[in-house]
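User: Structure tokens for both sequences below?

Assistant:
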Amino acid sequence: MAQRSATLAGFQAMFSRPSLGLAEIAWRWSFAFATVSLLAFSVLEYLDSLPVTSRDEFMFRTRQPALISRALAHILRGSSLRVIAAAILLAVALSIAWILLGALGRGLTLGAMREYFEGGVDSSGASEQIIRGFRLRSLVGLNFLRVAATIAAVVGCLAAFFAAGAASPPSDPSPGTSALICFFIATLAGGVWAILNWFLSTASIFVVAEGRDTFAAIAGAVGLCRDRLGPVLAASAWFSLAHMAVFVLASTVMGFPLVFAGLLPPGVVVGGVLVVALLYFAAVDYLYVGRLAAYFAVLGAAEVLPVIDLAPGPAGGDLNLTASIDRSELILSDLPHLIPEI
């Protein structure tokens, strides 16, 4: 019997249950708003802590590049340690917030998605079931591994710059070799991060659908790709094409206010670009939910595949291969002179 396409099931879930996309937007944009607010507050506090003397103000008023650069160097002198400390503190705080909020948001979204595929209408019970017990801890573990992979990728990119600088010393510069080394290491780090991030994000489906722990869910994601690679690749390809189409459309629409930047007020131009960007991010979140729904459908199709039991069963209609074999019948290896002697 032909099965329904998992990709079509993902698109159908995305359009027929818009609350899934709205829930995704709610928790993602809440974290994004908190991150932007915290970064803006930190930057303002840092700028407020910088000492500006009357001499520096005089150099700024001259509008001479050399004097302005000297004033900036004097203002920023000795503040690098504060910047590094603030950056580390922000990174740790945002990572912890992402791990907790991402685990809760992903659990609630996938819980509602599970209720949708099971034919349920009310997903309130799914929320309580996700929050209880080890399932939330498993999602926290997956998000922790995603943050760790991201930090490792950033360290790898920084190592690419240092390795490129070491390959091209001032005494014997080699910009071509330096650029090639930097590009290769950065690309390798980014590729490994993309693969790990995909498996870790897909593993959350097994946490919610089957109640697995962190590492068992990762093993389930690997097994899904091994057993159902075709449908997984098909769903990823179609949703990637949809993402590309949305990006091209948003870029085209965003160009209209920029074309009339000299005729329209700056506020109108910035507002138009911001509205288009927000619509683009909303569409991307909806597509991400649809792709997760497609993977959910692939997992459901894998669970209902027929399994043929070849073991001998009781009398009746069950398949019994042992009883149908005539042990007195000659097989090819028993026929004399079938293979000529050499």
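Moving on to the next sequence.
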Amino acid sequence: MKKDYYLILRLTPKATADEIRSAYHRRALEVHPDVSGGDSAPFRELQEAYAVLSDPAQRAVYDGGADEIPIRRGPAGPGRSGDVILRRQQAEPLTEPRSAAGFEDISLFRSFETCSPSLEETFERLWSNFTRLTRPKAERMEGLQVEVPLSARQAFEGGAVRLLVPARMICRVCGGRGNVGPCECLHCEGHGVLTGEYPLTVNYPAGLQGDYIARIPLDRLGIHNLHLIVRFRPAETGW
């Protein structure tokens, strides 16, 4: 029976390329076995669906009713060895809805055009901080580079973004015990930890005429093998 790739991504056949990419990143955070604690099959199926629907030629074949689609997987994007790079489309400055505090909210794994190495490799490295009892002693700290384009006006005025980083935090209500007295903790549903995307606010100064780089440690989120490098890149033209 032919797999319904749109159903796997929770989309309709009219979905745009941007909607497909966003849905893949969102669902990857939901079904990755390191997060869900379940079988890896749903994640592999999700990757298969994205590989087909993100490629215009393969999507056309799939939409035409073909039962078998030859899945092509391109090589990883460019980048120095050891670097992790998340890149937004340079033609589209900050467009995420603003939070109540007035910041731009950007999800690390749902808001970016490309990821090098692959999303899976990057996520597994990040999530190893929460799933392995011990990590290799020789493991090297690496940079998680995030490129954020700014419009000319944003660069002139200055401002801030709020990056949402996947992490697993000890429940503050029960202190990680999973219960409050004799009762199960309702806040974490008895798990003792809360898995989600946690905000980090990054400011950039006014009057930018060139790239501005901010470096942020992630230790506060329990992430010790990656540090965040945010590169704000002003547009050369436009307002």
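User: Anything stand out in the second?

Assistant: The two ends are 51 Å apart (CA to CA).
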